Protein 1
Amino acid sequence: MSGDAVVTEIDHDEFNPRGTLALILVYFAILVVMWVFMYFVEFLGNDLTVIG
Amino acid sequence: MHIHNYEKIWLVLAMIMIVGFLTTVTYGATAVGIEMISDEEDTIDPGALDEDPRFAEPRVEQVGENEYEAYVVAQQYIFSPDPIEVPANSTVTFYVTSPDVIHGFQVAGTNANTMVIPGEVAKLTVETEEPGEHGIVCNEYCGSGHHVMEGKLIIHPEDEFEMEDDE
Ligand SMILES: [Cu+2]
């Protein structure tokens, strides 16, 4: 890299970190699945739940 | 301050998740009726359990048409009574206490689980459904025999269950 020629200049909104967004959506999906599974399936589905 | 659109997306998702968690727990506590085990039971003299009408003779008692109470003593290194026998499709309230050290009372594989503290009475109500057998384990280290401290909960089919008269 020579470093003397700026090829393009973009501002804040023009830079779109798509990979980061995709990663976060994947994390979110994993968390939602785990949330539903752990609470509604594992916890509520486990007989002898304390009700009093 | 200027926030990038992508950042807005994940900020909103994080908020949705927090609200979702809170909603889920609220749903469990209200619609499903999940309760926490409290310390509202009166305290008791752990050295005088044999003078307590509930714990002098650990047992299961029928208190309503389909309601039972189990008075359970957890001590180094047994649970009494053992086994605890109750019918299916009934409401069972466990009162558990200890004369010596802290124990745990966990019906293995279920959500029925509490600490057992000397001087305190842990009260937990559950609804039994299917007949079957569950192990009960002590899940608080209570001494050299902790690993062998176990009991059993037997849920009998309703039509086969009969309370024995006072032994
Ligand atoms: Cu123990």
Note: The longest strand of chain B covers residues 67-75.
Protein 2
Amino acid sequence: MFKNMSYKNQRKIIIIAFSLIPVILLFTFAYLPVINMFKYSFTNWNGYSPEYKWVGLKNYRTIFTDPKYFTVFKVSLYYFVATFVQMGLALYFATILSFKVRAGNFFKGIIFFPSLLNGVAIGFIFLFFFKPDGTLDTVLQYIGLGSLTQGWLLNPNLINISLAGASLWRYMGFNFIIFLGAISSVGKDVYEASDIDGANKWHQFCHIILPSIKRILQLNLILGISGAISAFDIPYIMTGGSNGSNTFVIQTIDVAFKYNKLGLASAMAVVLLFIVIVVTVIQRLLVKEGE
Amino acid sequence: MYKLKYTIASILKYLSLIIATLVVLIPIVVIIFASLKTGQEYATSNPLEPPTNWFNFANYSKAFVGGKMLLGFANTIFILIVSIIGATLIGSMVAYILSRFKFRGRKLLMTAFLLATLIPSVTTQVATFKIIDFLHLVDTRFAPIILYLGTDIIAVYIFLQFLDSISESLDESAMLDGASYFTIYFRIILPLLAPAIVTVIIVKGVNIYNDFYTPFLYMPSQDLQVISTALFKFKGPYGSQWEVICAAIIISIIPITIAFVSLQKYIYNGFAQGSVK
């Protein structure tokens, strides 16, 4: 039926036909929520009643003045620090595995594997790992450090470190595989040339590997930072946010659906979105600069 | 001297790799151990002790039946297939017109898709929920499907990148033969996109299989549980029976392990391409 149509008409039809559904979906599920969220954030809507009042900036004031709401950002710091450790380890393993290593493929697979597991399974694996007389305590006893055993998830001073550790275990392999891909895109001849020039491995790391993956390193670091700010899965599954492990996203979801303060929750989400966008824009600028 | 230094470095290198292997494997291996123990055995042994009977699958059948994991797999597979087919079609259609036609609004459309990746979906869930609710899709399988289609733009990216490498002269020669644009899309572009489609299947497949948040929030009823929410439900009723929970954990990670071992190369490539937006 299109055969007899001129290409000019076909063009019009195909552009409309092929973009209509995607554009509707994109608008409804990516942009409309943001618009609505801004609107709700200035109201006291509970999420279900037909009426609500405009309250201006009251919700925002609550977030920044009531310690109950802004102290949860402190928890992000643990995930933030873990992100740096995670990047460092990922970079280390990517570097050594980009050279010839016995059983290299085996190690590569093992290090990457955790990032394919689902969050609930990882949450349970680490509940088992940290529970009293669980995996960690038993391992410590085996290697003669039995005196260190304690309530890893019960002690409010330790809980976030334990959870950030589980999060590191989960995501390190992902960064590792990305770094490995970036490093391996450097030609073999570059290393060979530097070998001839008498460069050692450390020189090669500083002068060949690091510059070649600078961009991807920045990208991952900043993705990691926004990931740390919006940490949700692991703490929610493992502790439900109890014992001082509450993160901003858990708090937002609870405020919206448990306490039915949709207006306030929307304001919290706007704050989070704003932080993430700022971080992402900085990233894009840095990436542009690096090019 | 040089040799000695080299040997020490080499020992440290392998030592660090072995430690990493242990750190990854021990938490998982102890779960396998526990899943094969009887309740009594579990209570009296420590996590690092292997089970006495390696073929005690009682916990597995208990977890599989009691946790209705078959239902979880069925729902997951249904959502996975529909979402991936949808994402492939929608993504490749948009990528096709964006890469092949210079029309008014093209820049705007491109920017709209790019900008959407900046919005982390976890932050807008509060408002998204109201939209899904308005469409009467809460507690149906179409809630996650439509969200996976509408908010995950990654497929568009992967296709756009790939289409840049497909020469337009192919389209032109087909046009000389009188093929319509639709024919060109279905007969030439779509088949040539096969490698990119593999990438999309892997990246989206792993994300959807592992997603907990969306099904948890949008499909509360038990009939609609997917594998991750089915697993999450073990927390309450089986709270004291760790050996059953462990079996459920292993059941949930078996499919992804099989996929990983058999598709290793594609998975590495897929993740490498899918991540660089």
Note: DSSP finds 14 helices and no strands in chain A.
Protein 3
Amino acid sequence: MSVLDRKVLRDLWQMRGQALAIALVMACGVAAFVMSLSMLHALENTQERYYEDYQFPHIFVHLKRAPRTLLERLVTVPGVSQAQARIVEDVTLDMPALAEPAVGRLISLPEHGEARMNRLYLRRGRWLEPGRSEEVLANEAFAEAHGLHPGDSLVAIINGRRQQLRIVGVVLSPEYIYQIRPGDMLPDAKRFGVLWMNETDLAAAFDMEGAFNDLTLRLMPGAPEPEVIRRIDRLTADYGSLGAYGRTDQTSNLFISNELRQLRSMALIVPIIFLAVAAFLMNIVITRLIGTQREQIATLKAFGYSRVEIGWHYLKMVLVLVVLGSVLGTAVGTWMGAGMTALYTRFFHFPVLRYRLDPPVIGLGFLACAASAVGGALGAVRRAVRQPPAEAMRPEPPQSFRPTVIERLGFERFFSPALRMILRQMERRPLRALLSALVIALATAILVVGDFVGGSVQYALDTYFHLAQRQDVTVLFGEPSEGRVVYDLGHLPGVRSCESFRNVPARLHFGPRSRRLVIQGVERQGELNRLIDFHQQPLVVPAQGLVLSRKLAELLDAHVGDALTVEVLEGLRPVREVLVVGVMEDFFGTNAYMERTALNRLMREGPLVSGAYLAVDSARLTELYDKLKHCPGVAVVVVKEAALKSFEDTIAENLLIIKSFMVVFACIIAFGVVYNSVRITLAERARELATLRVIGFTRAEVSRILLGELAVLTVLAIPGGLWLGHALAELDTLVNDTELFRLPLWIEPSTYGFAVVVTLSAALVSGLIVRRQIDRLDLVSVLKTKE
Amino acid sequence: MIDSSTAILPALDGPRGQAVFQARGITKVYRMGEVEVQALRGVDLDLFPSEFVVLLGPSGSGKSTLLNILGGLDVPTSGTVRYQNHDLSAENDALLTRYRRQHVGFVFQFYNLIPSLTARENVALITEIAANPMPPEEALALVGLSERMNHFPSQMSGGEQQRVAIARAIAKRPDVLLCDEPTGALDVTTGIVVLDVIARVNRELGTTTVVITHNAVIAGMADRVITLSDGRIVAQKSNAAKRSARELVW
Ligand SMILES: Nc1ncnc2c1ncn2[C@@H]1O[C@H](COP(=O)(O)OP(=O)(O)O)[C@@H](O)[C@H]1O
Ligand SMILES: [Mg+2]
């Protein structure tokens, strides 16, 4: 090792506290980067491989009933490479562990040979055997939620008859990586199971011999999806098609894409914040270091060291820290990534989701870290190498001070000399003071963001599931039914009130844009299902026209007053123009609401309903459930509270983990800036402070002058930090403004309190650590050495 | 006051052969905002191989400025300086750096050691980039510091530090040794030890040596004494018999 390199290490060791603080901040950035990017890759790669290996379809169509002969015509559509027909039916499951009915989705598997698409991965047990009508394969999430194993049985109510099904295998499907019943808001593995059965048996049970009601297609590479969808729609319209759609609208895929999107923005935003802070810290530390080594640099030059050699010498110091930060960050990021991946497997069911650290990510993390650090240090290093050596040998001229603005304004009599020193110091380096304050503010802001999400999600859940959706149970009929069915439901045990609704699958077109969704026809004066917006204000559905989620309106680029073309995908399939009469800020999904009778009129039908909301006396729930399980017209029963509870638990755990990371990150940032600022001020003003000691100031008084600057900065920074936190939270809500979920910008006062308390504590603890070092420094000896 | 341009025109071809340094009409003006400081007002100077020159003069007379220009740390505002075939008056950082690296050893008033390196490492710092250096140990032995090789500057006295600085300056076997007030921060006895070392290096290695001082007594050691005042050479005197440092009376 060259002597100059030895100097690198010794100098770094000399300032190890500061070096560590910077390395830690860099490590945070690298950790966030490595974690989110490697998770992103793991998820993306796994998904892609899974989709290809298990033949995930490109186009999906659900229809009422079509003859199998239709398949031959479907495969002639240009761009279609394969088509597979299936029978998919939702039935009620009577699970011993549940009082309430669960929904079972039965999917047909070809008797002979493998399915062409959505192939299953057999986790345990064996495949179905032909001719065994009672055999099923169960998806893993459901099996795990109920502790079901191959050999266990369960009871399904098929066409009103209880039927015993025997699980022979536990499987995974690329169609249900994220397992949620389409139309539901929350995943609930306990109450939604997917079961695969032999086609013949399923066809027999639902009178579907020679027919199908579900179609999946794979396209040739480069096939124009919108065009294929148009053609498929035309071919299937007569068979009650609910409209063909691509992967972007496939529920499970949508959730995964959403997650990938968030990871992507996280992989970008969080590291940028940290690396910017690291660059700033690097800048002030290296500037100071080079300031104190002015004469050393001049000496090196006098003896013939070149500019490049000297510049490289200082960059090496920076790079040592970069390596330290990157290695630490990569290690922590890997650890966090592995942990987060484990969390992911609760939501995303892949045959294997292996967390793998890929070298390009590490390399990229290192490069980003190096770029920011070198960027921070470069200015100072460049100034150092350019300094004429003869000049550097001369002592630096005394720094020029002047009265601060406040003093010049005549307020000086309110300030003690100590405070005046603090203010002058800050005013002399306004940019540095400003940036230090900004970094402290950033720490506060990170805390606000880390804490606000929990409150915000809770606010959304409470608003939607308690204020808007006030029913306990939702009943969906297999077919649109006469309104009087609701009266029958109203007489079931325990039902306190009952409110019907009409759901109509449709495509909304506006200009070149269109969306496939379910128009929800709600009661005008609904008590159980109300439209409640972001501000928790109830909205009365107008007698005519559509009310759209703000997100949906944006996706369609439609505004109040625009006329949308509604293409109904059910019954007589009317196509009508309907005005947008309202846009509503809501949290979940992309919704289109209409008054129920208006929707009935649009459908040119009588007062038909698709289902009902029930408010139930909790004491009599079991009794009610028992009845509902055996109600012939009832296809699906959704129990709100149970799903909500299990979702809240999981999400709470996730949010807690994220929040803990944020708190650690924020504390590291606060420590990094407080510690470094004080150390640098101490180095710059050692003589001045030593003089104060000599003329009789106590250690405590000297510390106060030194730490006072930080106290002032911290106090000034906090309001800015809260504002910045609000801004970052807003950014977070923008990143989370998706079709699935919109995070409301709702910040609890306690979030601000939390951020303030943690920032102050972090600053205080950092200050105390430095103070111990100030006390140990022999300030008086400073005076004996030459400036 | 004597006019430097007429009074002291040194012979171009002196007793010691070809001059190593030739300075002609060098001036140096420092600009600090509105104020101009005329540090050198036209200096002509030749230095010869193995010559020991002492630069005398009051504070602010331009001694350091002249030495810095000779050492390639600074360039004159006007005039020319040549060291053998190097042009030292051109502002070319790469050329000046190479010149300093190959030919010059500096000793400064405040030692300017790297505090985070030991004595040996401070010397090695220079030998690592020199073409034909002596081992750092040998350089330190020359200044009588073999024992303290592994001490850090903060663990040594001022005189010891200055001797390390001399070892550092001579370790590369420089052609020129430039010392700016090497005894300025030292007490008399230590100063004599340090001067003695410099004189010995001059004698034994044949290094052309320039020592700045404002202590006229030191001048007794020199082959030639040049006095600067207000940016001009005002007197030159050659010593017939040099005295050794130990004989100096302060
Ligand atoms: N870098 C500089 N900037 C401005 N003035 C300078 C600089 N270097 C030297 N001077 C001025 O030039 C004059 C000569 O300085 P110097 O050569 O250091 O004198 P000496 O070494 O004889 O004391 C002095 O007036 C000094 O203030
Ligand atoms: Mg001087």
Note: Chain A has a mean pLDDT of 87.
